[in-house]
Write a structure and sequence with these properties.
homodimer, about 180 residues, mainly alpha, Arc Repressor Mutant, subunit A, Tetracycline Repressor, domain 2, 9 helices, DNA-binding
DNA sequence: AAAAAACGATACCGATCGGTAGCGTGTTTG
DNA sequence: CAAACACGCTACCGATCGGTATCGTTTTTT
């Protein structure tokens, strides 16, 4: 669906509520009727947008981590990847969090996708913390998750320094198995 | 302005774009004419909302930190305060970040307030890192900022464990002046 | 008590919102 | 070749959007 790709780009760049269906029609060249044949409501389109973002996210995550040999190397690779992602021109924060900010209803279909996305991230971070031997596994994983989400929502502040270096240094300190 | 208080509550609970002026009128009992005499546009009202949130935030921050004697005690106090804040019922993330997610234009008056707010936070964290002797001062301050923003936007995930404990442990590890 | 400022109520504005109906044109599938 | 399907186009729907005009009433100030 070319309509979904266009909608996703507009939703991310301008915010979901700021983009009307007509704008998606004009930008994509797809008729409004056709869009509504594939997605019964705008909410469904937003949900599809987040699902697509989720899929691409883990795809890139896996690619970034693929060549890492050790668990520590995985963390470094993640730091590099996230740093580069945040510094990308046009980056405007985590789409899952952005949508959650726009739609207050926790039962909104898109919110459910966002929650699953963040749960999956925590799950993966816990696995990493496990193999790296970080002390209270669950707690350190949560700390890494907070750090990453904070990086996503830093609104360019992080880009002023070396984002990747900042993240990797924090990853190392938080996962180091030394003393209290 | 009672209208601002009502608007602030609605904006935070439902999202700015989800709240119409008419809803503010009905909820506050203030006539629409009166609101527009004090705030020329809705954007101005949103800006005032964030300015008010900013003021209250630092007021509470200062209060939370007031009784701390050492620099380390300041960090612990912040961890406790943020942990309690995030776990509060009806908490829906940092209003500054939420508004930034809703309004893509970086020049929006509310976005400027949000940027100043985050710059002020980084400034304060740098001062704390300075007095606690954290190694690359600016970098550690940024790491603390990311952690805090991540906590704000954790959407309840953090509340499932002990939020304050998770934050304080991370604060300690990130600011500890030891090796590497 | 008089003048000035603030407020409330109603009615309205054009624009846009998400969503639908109807109809014609291709394009695939059998 | 024919039947089914997918798409585009136009026009339209009621509702709501942010914002304004008008006017009478209340409250404050002097």
């Amino acid at each position: 669906m070319q309509a979904l790709r266009t909608a996703a780009a507009l939703f991310y760049a301008k915010g979901v509520r700021a983009v009307g269906m007509e704008e998606i029609v004009e930008t994509s060249g797809i008729a409004k009727t056709t869009i509504y044949r594939h997605f019964p409501t705008k909410d469904a389109l937003v949900e599809a947008f987040l699902k697509q973002e989720d899929a691409e996210f883990w795809q890139q995550w896996d690619a970034a981590v693929a060549s890492a040999s050790s668990a520590d190397a995985v963390l470094d690779a993640l730091g590099d990847w996230i740093g580069a992602r945040v510094e990308r021109p046009g980056y405007r924060g985590c789409p899952q969090i952005n949508v959650a900010a726009e739609f207050a209803d926790p039962g909104h279909p898109a919110r459910i996708v966002a929650r699953r996305h963040k749960a999956e991230m925590l799950r993966r971070l816990e696995a990493i913390c496990q193999s790296v031997g970080a002390k209270p596994t669950a707690q350190v994983a949560m700390q890494l998750a907070l750090l990453i989400d904070g990086a996503f929502m830093s609104d360019g502040r992080l880009s002023m320094g070396d984002a990747a270096a900042t993240l990797k240094a924090a990853f190392r300190r938080l996962t180091s198995p030394d003393r209290l």
